[in-house]
């Protein structure tokens, strides 16, 4: 006889402190997903989704690494349940990637001349015009800014 699966998830201690913020960000994510794409380029329709995903990941990262407000068990639970992006947090821990907006900005295969995204160029090396990343809408995530 097969095992019966239940949807009961055991939440670690401290979950009740971060749950309201994560629920609010989930509601914003649903609104962004259901928002009209009329008059936008194909890539621009995804920018709000990338932004909210970045906010959730940064929130959990800051709670664990900077403020030390949550336990390791709760942090790993959030990563396992998909509330935060493991790979993005791994990059944020490395020097030079502390403000990285998304992983697509550092993948050379997605850009011309096999380089990184234009948002990774420090502001003092850019021209005066405003630059937006094609993938996520970022206006600059270089750590040297």
Characterise the protein shown here.
The protein has 145 residues and is mostly helical. It has 2 domains: 15-93; 99-145, no CATH class. The protein contains 4 helices and no strands. The chain has helices at 15-34, 47-66, 72-80, 86-92. Helix 1 (15-34) runs antiparallel to helix 2. The longest helix is centred in the N-terminal third of the chain and has 20 residues, at 15-34. Its main location: nucleus. Keywords: Nucleus.
Structure annotation, total helices: 4
Low-confidence stretches: none
Structural class by helix and strand composition: mainly alpha
Number of strands: 0
| Total domains | 2
Computed over alpha carbons, the radius of gyration is 18 Å
Globally, the shape reads globular
Largest sheet: none
Helix content: 25-40%
The share of residues in extended strands comes to under 5%
Average pLDDT confidence is 87
- Strand-and-helix sequence, N→C? HHHH
Cα distance, first to last residue?
60 Å
Subcellular location: Nucleus
Pfam families: BUD31
Keywords: Nucleus
GO biological process, one term: mRNA splicing, via spliceosome
